[in-house]
């Protein structure tokens, strides 16, 4: 509005344009509304709110309690009070069913835990007895072998005889027309077994004769010594 800074208010623009229209500045809002054909608005209720159709609509809203969340509404778009519905369902038996199922599951879990605990305790109780049985069944290595030397020698002779018989058995099994049978997890030829048995009997009879002659000579020597004395 001022042409330059520090201008005087007695300029021609202030004197001839603004000063005559200062009184109209207070009514500029109404002047603009009239210029653009804008209707006047205010905070007070206008006449359309007092018509019959609006009164009926307001009465319907008040009857249906549209401003609050209350049950019993007939309008389809009305919100549902889920809290009250849930409370009614729980009061109607849902709460009892829930408590029954929860306690049943808790009892089942408790039974499973006790069963596991008893199994662990039984294993802990039986494990020392089992170890004692194992240690008792095992022979004591500190006890020396009480077998006589003659028994050990006879066992060694039997092992040698078994080792000597093995090639014969293999040879007979490889190509033989005679009957072969299983004895002590080994294949033994019937005829050879009879021969071995006969040879064993002859050797045993010879050993018995030698022992008898030895005993007889020892008895004679003892009698001679007694007579000399």
TrEMBL record:
Residues 199-210, 218-229 have a biased composition (Acidic residues). Residues 1-45 form the DUF6589 domain. It comes from the Eukaryota. Residues 124-135 have a biased composition (Polar residues). InterPro entries: DUF6589. Residues 139-154 have a biased composition (Low complexity). Residues 120-175, 191-229 are annotated as: Disordered. This is DUF6589 domain-containing protein. It comes from Gymnopilus dilepis. The lineage of its organism: Eukaryota, Fungi, Dikarya, Basidiomycota, Agaricomycotina.
